[in-house]
Branched-chain amino acid ABC transporter ATP-binding protein/permease (Rhodopseudomonas palustris), 590 residues
Amino acid sequence: MPRWLPILLFAAVMTALPLIPGIPPFWIVLLDNIGLAALVAMGLVLLTGVGGLTSFGQAAFCGFGAYTTAYITTVYGISPWLALPASLVVAGIAAVLLGLMTVRLSGHYLPLGTIAWGIALYYLFSKLDFLGRNDGISRVPPLSIGPIDMYDPHTIYFVIWAMVLISAVLTMNLLDSRTGRAIRALRRGHVAAEAFGVQTARAKLLVFIYAAVLAGLSGWLYAHFQRNVNPTPFGPQAGIEYLFIAVVGGAGYVWGGVLGAAIVIILKEVLQGYLPLLFGGQGQLEIIVFGILLVVLLQLAPGGVWPWLANLVPLKFRRAVTGNADGLPARERVGGSTTAPLLKVERARKQFGGVVAVNDVSFEVNAAEIVALIGPNGAGKSTTFNLITGILTTTGGRIEVHGKPVDNTPPQEVVKLGIARTFQHVKLVPDMTVLENVAIGAHLRGRSGAITSMLRFDRGDEAKLLAEAARQIERVGLGAEIDQLAGSLSLGQQRIVEIARALCADPELLLLDEPAAGLRHMEKQRLAALLRQLKDSGMSVLLVEHDMGFVMDLADRIVVLDFGTRIAEGTPDAIKTNPDVIKAYLGALA
Ligand SMILES: Nc1ncnc2c1ncn2[C@@H]1O[C@H](COP(=O)(O)OP(=O)(O)OP(=O)(O)O)[C@@H](O)[C@H]1O
């Protein structure tokens, strides 16, 4: 089924609803409120559900949008339509300022930070004289198109839902793009995304601004719908409710935001309408019942109602890969005519407090060479990988790529030099397909930004990126799994997906951390064949591996670490018979 068909059907239903003869006006008001909340929740989907940044403060951005338009339309008498860009820009600027302070926070400090500024802004709105303090601003003009003034809920309904639909389409386009994949990777931590060039701080700020602008849009609509603005709807309680809406609907799904808004607002109305009849109007019982029902709902559908419903109607939107990977620009080579080794690690050192994880280790990797780094658990192999790829800073020594120092260079810059890696503990995004995960590897080879992607002007670039990802997936032998969610594959297969992702970066040196762990015998043989093939094509491989049969068959050279110190280096035959290595490591394996 084409992707746009359900959207078109939804648009048709929403257009027809208010035209049904005899539909109670109250229902239209309810639908207007659902649309307004859906816009805020959609921003939260991107921010919290997709990007992993929990915010309780979104209502404040509605306030920025609402107060901006209320102020300039009443004081300067300009058209609400001209005030719209101002509302969005003010909400966006507020997001930049608050985002720069907040998105650096992690763990529970981030949501606490959003609560703090949510409360602060609420009090600010209610204390400023020019915003009317607690009384707010009244006599806000209605929206109008030509001779039609949208005084009644029936007419503004079409504007609200047109905005919801346009925002949903733009948001889906954004998520289904190079920038969207970078945002979706944030939730699994920074390390993997940064290793492929994603500027995670910038991606976080982008979603923060995007969510705030959607909230600002909702605020703008709200001001011209209610025609007066006061601080109450923009306080911390509303902020909590918006987050509730996103979570109930399904925080990871654009339509979850819309569905969540419908569920929460209708439920509240029904309870407020009927419970006082049942219990004789005793003190706000509906709020308690509302809370209990939401908790029950989340128990039944922990990921939200949208994915639960989507599972009942399993519609598959298969991604056709149509582009030509040859059109993708190759990574710019930095080696040039230098005779320096591809990778030179010289007396690299890493201390964690009193622990010397890497103790003045030196070795080199040359072009078209497979080098293995072996040693007992805790010998410092993964730490060495992290020093080379910029995830950790060195305590001493020097690391060079083509003679260029890279120690203490950010991972996003290291990958540009042609170094791509896999991880000992697999770092894929489980709810993204194999194709989407692998395409993150080609992040630096694409150019499209957020706006281009939202407007779908990125299709040429995107087709080439996906074609490259598909080519690498075929290359590692996982073509049949291309549309599977990465989280549904076996751990061994996930390691191979990581290799395909690394190959997408067009590397000169592949760093593989235990690539054969979890693979069956035949799979290991296929992996060894692939790595030999890569070597024949001129690529180098540095691998950490505990399977000695695999290493001895494959490596040109082996470097052995023990307690962070290099104890031997040589060909597999020399290493097999080295007494120090047998004592420290091979003996233990025998
Ligand atoms: N972030 C950290 N903080 C403190 N100590 C660390 C940190 N990372 C690693 N270490 C310590 O550094 C030493 C080397 O660890 P590393 O993970 O590099 O070993 P490894 O050779 O990769 O081991 P394995 O084969 O088990 O993966 C260990 O003693 C480990 O406990």
In short: The radius of gyration is 28 Å. The mean pLDDT is 90.
